[in-house]
Amino acid sequence: MSVTLDLSRVSASSAQGADAPKPLINLSGLTRPQMIAALTESGVVEHGKAKMRATQIFRWIHHRGVTDFAQMTDVAKETRARLADSFTVSRPEVIERQVSKDGTRKWLIRMAPGIEVETVYIPSVGRVGALCVSSQVGCTLNCSFCHTGTQALVRNLTAAEIVAQVQVAKDDLNEWPSDKEDRLLSNIVFMGMGEPLYNLGQVADAIEIISDNEGIGISRRRITVSTSGVVPQLQKLGETTQAMLAISLHATNDPLRDVLVPLNKKYPIQELMDGIRAYPGLSNARRVTFEYVMLKGVNDSPDEARALVKLIKGIPAKINLIPFNPWPGTDYQCSDWAAIEAFAAILNKAGYSSPIRTPRGRDILAACGQLKSESEKVRASALRKLSVAAMVGGLDDEDEAAA
Ligand code: SAH
Ligand code: SF4
Question: Which of 10, 84, 117, 375 would suit a FRET pair with 330, their CA atoms being 20 to 30 Å apart?
Fold first, then answer.
C-alpha cells in the first residue's frame, strides 16, 4: 500500500508561517479585466458592480496618480477600508534621483529588497520625451558589448513593477492627471535592463495598462519594445501588444553576430529577418527600428554599411546607430565619429533614416555602461544597472506624424 501525501493545501502563507500577513496585491499592475476579476474574487465588490468599480479605481490610479485608497473620495469609506485589507496602490521607494543639465532624469527604484532598477527619462526623443524602462533585473543573454549581459538574471519584473517605473517618472515630472496638456512623457521604450521577450506576459500586461485610455493613455504606436531577436516570440509580441518593434541587430553576418549577440546561434540572421517581415502591422507607417551599436574596427566599415542595406532590403525600416558606451573591463571601443558619419551616409544614400543618437545625461551617468561602474563605486551594489539614454532612438518624427 502506498501513502500519498497531499501537500497541495500548504499555502504560501502557511509556508511562511501561519501568522504571516497575506501579501497585498498592487492594483497598479492589473489590467482592467484583471482588476474586475480581482475585485470580485476578493469579495470586496459585488459581481454586478465590479466593472464600474474597476474603471473608477483604475482612473484614480492611472489618471489621477493616487497612491492611497483614502484619496479615492467617490468610493465609500467602508469599501476603501476593505480594499486596503487585500490590495495596495502604493509606489516602490525611490532611493536616488538625478537630473542632468540637459534635462535627462534618472531614478533608482527599489522594488523589493535586492531588486533595484534604474529608469531614465530622455527629453526630446519621440514626440516630446521618452522613458526607458527595464523588464528584468539582469539578463540571461550575454551580448559581449553589453554591461547588463555581465550580470546574471536576478528575476523578471512584474507588470506592477514595470508600470511603477512610469508612475515614478510621472510623479517627478508632475504629469498627473494623465490628460494634462503639454505632457513631457510621450513615449515608452523597453530598452533598459533585460530581454522583454523573455518576460512577455508581464510586459504585455504593462503595455495594456500604460496604453489604456482611462489612464496613462500612451498610444501603442509610441511604445517600442527592443529585442535581441527572440524570433518565436515576435508574432505574439505584435498580436498581443501592437507595440513598435526594435531589433538589436549589430552585425550583418552570422559569425560576427554570434559573438556580439550569442542568441544569434539559436536564431540566426535569416530566421530573424523572416520573423521581422512577418511582424504584425509592419508597414511604412509602422517601421521596424534596427539598432546598430558602433564598435570600432568590429562592425563599422563602409562594407558593413552596404551589407546592412542589402540585408534589410524590402523591410520598412529605420536604423538607429548607437555610439558604443564603454564600461570598465570591456575590450570594445566606440567607433570614431568619422566612421559613424561615413556609415550613416551610406544608409542615408540608400534611403534610410539613420539618426545617430547623441548620448544624453552624461553628467548624471545616464548613459549605458557608465551607470553601473560609477554606481558600484558609490554604492557597492551589483544590482544597480544601466538604463539607456544614448541608445534610445528609432523614434523619429515621421512615425509620430502618422500616429
Ligand atoms: N535586451 C533588449 C533590450 C535592452 S538593451 C535588447 O537587447 O534589445 C537595449 C539596447 O542597448 C540594445 O540595442 C543593446 O544592444 C544596446 N546596448 C547594450 N549595451 C550597450 C552599450 N554598452 N553601448 C551602446 N548600446 C548598448
Ligand atoms: Fe540582454 Fe539586451 Fe544586454 Fe543583450 S543587449 S545582454 S539581450 S540587455
Answer: 117
Distance between Cα 356 and ligand 1 center (Å): 15
Q: What mean pLDDT, rounded, does the chain reach? A: 86
Query: With a 6 A CB cut-off, is 148 part of the ligand 2 pocket?
Result: yes
Superfamily, domain 93-386: Aldolase class I (3.20.20.70)
> Between 269 and 357, whose confidence is greater?
269
**Does this chain's domain 24-88 share its CATH topology with 93-386?**
no
- pLDDT digit string (tens) for 113-139? 989 998 999 997 877 899 999 999 989
How far is it, in rounded angstroms, from Cα 403 to Cα 398?
Answer: 9
Mind listing the pLDDT tens digit for each residue in 252-292?
999 999 999 999 999 999 999 999 999 999 999 999 999 99
For residue 48, with 0-12 CB atoms within 10 Å meaning exposed, 13-18 middle and 19 or more buried, which class applies?
A: exposed
Helix or strand holding residue 310 (H, E) = helix 302-311
Residue ranges of the domains in the chain?
A: 24-88, 93-386
pLDDT at 33 over 50: yes
CA of 36 to the centre of ligand 1 (A): 37
Pick among 1.10.150.530, 1.10.3720.10, 3.40.50.720, 3.30.70.100: CATH of 24-88: 1.10.150.530
pTM above 0.90, yes or no: no
Match 566599415 to its residue by C-alpha cell. Answer: 301
The predicted structure's pLDDT at residue 47: 85
Question: Closest Cα partner for 135 from 157, 110, 111, 165?
Answer: 157
Ligand 1: lining residues by beta carbon, under 6 Å:
143, 145-147, 191, 194-195, 226-228, 248, 291, 293, 322, 324-325, 368-369, 388, 391
